[in-house]
Amino acid sequence: IPISGVSLSAQPPGGRVARGDLLVLSCAVAAGTGPLSFSWHRGGSAVPLGTGPRLELHVGDEDSDHYQCRVTDGDSAAESPPLHVTVL
């Protein structure tokens, strides 16, 4: 079953976080089989910020950007819609 329905959620909700506070991003998959690999990307960069279904960041001014989760099972891959994070 190809990966589908990749979604991204944030704590605090809406991705609005005060500088220095903890931002937790979580990635979920509606469908997909096999071992899933997660990677996190900011601003369209190919270099992953982290791996796994959760990403925790203590944010600074430079962290305001779009974030995406990419999921692969070795055969197929899918990305979440981008989430815009605003550092207050």
From TrEMBL:
SMART domains reported in the protein's UniProt record: IG
A Pfam match: Ig_2
Domain Ig-like residues, every copy: 2-86
Protein name per Swiss-Prot or TrEMBL: FCRL2 protein
The species this protein was found in: Tyrannus savana (Fork-tailed flycatcher)
Organism ancestry: Eukaryota, Metazoa, Chordata, Craniata, Vertebrata
